[in-house]
Hints:
This protein is of the alpha/beta class. The protein is 41% helix and 15% strand.
Amino acid sequence: MRQPKNKRPTQRTIAEKAGVSVGAVSRALANDPMMAEETRRLVHRIAQDLGYVPDRAAQRLRTGRTNVIGLILPPHDEILEFGTSIVRGISEALLDSPYHLVVMPDFSGDGADDTIRRVVRNQLADGVILSRTQPQDARIKYLLEAEFPFVTHGRSELATPHSYVDYDNAQFACHAARMLINSGARKLALLLPVRKFTFASHLQQGFMTAVRESGVAHAVINGVNIDSDAKLLESELRTLLTQEDAPDGLVLPGETSGIAALAAIQDLGLVPGKDVRIVVKQTAGIFDSIRPRTPSIGENLLEAGQLMAQLLLRQIAGEPAADLQYVQPAIIDERYIVNP
């Protein structure tokens, strides 16, 4: 039974209901591993029934911590459900911790420098998660110098190690190219992100590994990137496919570009999978329901969110960043396995 709106439940309220001390309630809510699990469950259940919400201001004065994890989230239009999956993964990982997630949207296009400085300067969070890393990322340099806990979705090339969760884009691009070559494609083309991002070089490295092995003709698509508007992507791909010596195999690192490519191919009266083959990086599962069936290689964003939150909590607890790095393997459907 919830307390009346004008009477906010406190830890003392929970203690009286549970028949334990206020100190025990505090330890139970912080998931103290030294406490009996039965007591912890009882306290959490009563807190939930009462609608208990911690007094963040008092908590910060007492511990020096905000119990906030900040996610700086720029637009990711090329990856369907990016924000939803990442937020869900982080939230799930924080469930049994005293931390809660605050999402900080960033549409400035400046790499969220100002947002990060404001978080650090005003102590708005105990740690942050950011994405779209660059080889010499100024945000990462600032956070390292400030000795502020953070985890990135993506790597950098900085000498000082930092915590990250990344996807093996080189593995994706290499396997995708091999799939196209094995299916009979004679010329491959790769769509890249904006070159300033670290994963652009990883994609190109993986792609070049496969084309050099086979000697197949290849190109990098110019004029558009995976962040380009879907209509522009469709138009440019349609133009590309009408050129002399046009590619007949496309490596596309996102669902939006995959959908645009299918539209361009069919608008030209070509047959997907026969006249032009494509392999798409899939994060939302949408290509499982698109016809004709299109080969895809998966990236688990839900898991990425969970991992980033777990690594950040461990870093806040004192573990060194060099031990908190993880690269997710590409999820390859067994139907599309090819020999190295």
